Amino acid sequence: MAHRSLEMKLISGLYFRLLPIQLILAAVNAVNGMISSLFAGNCVGKAAMSAIGLYVPFNLFIAAVALMLMGGAQLLCGESMGRNEKDRMQNVFSINLLVSVAVSAAFIAGLVLLVVTGATRLMARDDAVRRSFDAYLLGQAVGVLPFVLGQQLSAFLSLENRTRRTSIASFVFVLTNLALNAVLVGGLGMGALGLALAPSLGLWVYFGIQAQYYVSGQSMLKLRLRGVRRSDVPAILKTGYPGALSQVYQTLRGFILNALILQFAGNAGLSAFAASNALLGLVWSLPTAMVAVSRMLIGISIGEEDRRSLTDVMRVMFSRCVPLMGAVSALIIVSAVPLTRLYYREPADPVFGMTVMAFRILPLCMPLSVICIHFVCYAQASGKQLLVHILSLLDGVVCVAGFTALLIPVLGMNGVYVSNILNGLTCAAVIVLYSWAVRRAFPRNMEELMVIPADFGVKEDERIDIAVRSMDDVVTVSRQVTDFCLEHGTDRRRAGFAGLFLEEMAGNVVRHGFSRDAKKHSVDIRVAHKGDDVILRIRDDCVPFDPAERKDLVDPEDRAKNMGIRLVYRMAKDIRHQNILGLNVLTIRI
Predict the structure, then answer these.
(1) What are phi and psi of 347, to 5 degrees?
(2) How many Å from the N-terminal Cα to the C-terminal Cα in the chain?
(3) Does 3.40.50.1820 match the CATH number of domain 462-589?
(4) Hey, how many other C-beta atoms are within 10 angstroms of the C-beta on 398?
(5) Is 453 left (phi over 0), alpha (psi -120 to 50) or beta?
(6) Structural domain boundaries of the chain?
(7) Spatial separation of the C-alpha atoms in residues 361 and 333, rounded to whole Å
(8) What are phi and psi of 384, to 5 degrees?
(9) How far apart are CA 512 and CA 527, in angstroms?
(10) Which of 215-224, 341-350, 553-562 has the lowest mean pLDDT?
(11) pLDDT tens digits, residue range 142-176?
(12) In whole angstroms, what is the distance from residue 393 CA to residue 319 CA?
């Protein structure tokens, strides 16, 4: 139990170390929407706010495609990291960027055609709203390419543990967006066009700061135009599209909701919904960031066939993320009136009351959404396509649109807000029912709820996990590992090597890694018996260190130095080292 707690603490610590940067990444688009809505409400007017609301489904669709490419490439790269397939990582990186450019060009052409052909009349019948919408579409088209490419680079920078660069890029983007809004909207009075141009130009700055790292030649992943294999494109799309389905469905949901709101609540309802969604979009960045971290950890756990780490990710979600989201939701609810005053100042205006109720009701669905999107992510990575499609369809369009159609004629805009809560409850029930339907039994633990296949990884009795926190612990490792191997039928020679190898490598981490800084560290050791092989995995959170760099170093004055490492490399069948998300992972196969 002590080791179980330590391993859970390691996963939890890694999770929340990665979360802040992912939160910043997820907030980039939300900050764009919030700043635009604030300038629209205070400097332009309701027509511009309605234009922002009408653009939301288009933005969701572009974001969905970007997420499909990013999610597919990130999961494939994570699995390749887990398997140490460096060539495939390079190819996935290159083909992902090339496809992203092509897709962006298609989106830009589509937005321009909507304006040129006058097709926007189908969505905005009011002339003032339509003119604002046309201008807003043209301004947004300028930022499509850096938005899509920026999403991809942010994921790759996280895998390379270069999140600081993305943090800087995001901070500069916010400042640029704010400054350009002040100049283009507040100073030059460019209206809806300025509202869209400001974030679009800011996204070019955001993308440029990230891209500079890959142009500098310092990156592990490098863009290669020659010899790139298109064979990974179907794999990226197949792996990524289930996770993006929800946003595709949300695009459809957006068009349906806009039509229902205009019919039953008018332009005031659409403006209230746009204003509340703009600010809540920033809050939605938190669950989006949570699932982005989980996507990386889940992909790596599946690549390593690490059953326990896989379930630990979901345990962190339930024990840490859901309560955190609940606390944030409560804060929004009690601040409903002050938040509304950011957009509208007159309480007698119907749009004011509609916006207040949005802030009081919509946040209640957020903790439930954290559960749903995590299970969609896990199902996507593990090949449970039926669950992905069911949850994406229900969460994306069926529940919210269906419940809204039933409730909005009776409850008005409150019907839209309540529908989101009913949607979350329905999806949570479906997750449990899916486990029951597959297993024919009610889930009693996390593995059963996740429906992890029996042949995934190794069973509990075929592995041993050891926590090392000091040299005293290292001394006992050899005997424990040797005894475990002998009990599982390993010959004495290999069993002895297993104990010796782990004692040497774990001791090396404690002696050199623990002393590099003032932080508390631990070494997580796993020994698994799979087939005819003994697989040793040593994972630590110390500074990056590849023992392969020491195996060929011979000190003329001390030839015994590094002898232990050289012995391990000479006697083992296979040794692989990686630094994944700030963790050293050494895998030895005997």
Answers:
(1) -60, -25
(2) 27
(3) no
(4) 17
(5) beta
(6) 17-447, 462-589
(7) 7
(8) -90, 75
(9) 22
(10) 553-562
(11) 999 999 999 889 888 877 778 788 888 888 988 89
(12) 27
pTM, whole model, 2 decimals?
0.67
**CA-to-CA separations, 455 to 79, 306, 355, 447, 529, in angstroms, rounded:** 18, 12, 51, 13, 13
How far does CA 163 lie from the centroid of its chain? 13
Alpha-helix residue ranges (DSSP H) falling in 216-265:
232-264
Burial readout 474-511 (b: 16 or more C-beta within 10 A, e: otherwise):
beebbeebbebbbebebeeebbbbbbbbbbbbbbbbbe
DSSP-assigned states of every residue in 549-573:
HHHT--BTTBTTTTHHHHHHHHH-S
- What is the per-residue pLDDT for 411? 95
The residue length of the chain stands at 590
Amino acid sitting at position 458: V
- Would you state the structure tokens that stand for residue 449, as one six-digit string? 């709820």
Average pLDDT rounded to a whole number, residues 355-369: 96
- Alpha helices (H) in 509-562, listed in sequence order: 548-551
Give the model's pLDDT for residue 250.
Answer: 78
* List of residues 6+ apart from 112 with CB closer than 8 A: 137, 138, 141
For the CA atoms of 301, 305, 308, 314, the dihedral, rounded to the nearest 10 degrees, stands at 40
Render 407-468 in DSSP notation, one character per residue: HHHHHTHHHHHHHHHHHHHHHHHHHHHHHHHHHSS---SHHHHHT--TTSS--GGGEEEEEE
Q: pLDDT (tens digit, 9 = 90+) per residue, 108-133? A: 999 999 999 988 888 877 788 888 88
Residue with tokens 């007017």: 45
Strand 574-580 relative to strand 533-540: parallel, antiparallel, unpaired? unpaired
What is each CA distance from 252 to 58, 364, 464, 511, in whole angstroms? 10, 23, 49, 58
Residues 400 and 551: their CA atoms lie apart, in Å, by 59
**DSSP calls for 161-197:** T-HHHHHHHHHHHHHHHHHHHIIIIIIT--HHHHHHH
pLDDT at 406: 96
Q: Percentage of the chain surpassing pLDDT 70?
A: 90
Q: What are 435's two structure tokens?
A: 């486990």
Mean of the per-residue pLDDT values of the chain:
83
Cα distances (Å, whole numbers) of residue 452 to 15, 42, 215, 222, 370: 21, 52, 41, 35, 20
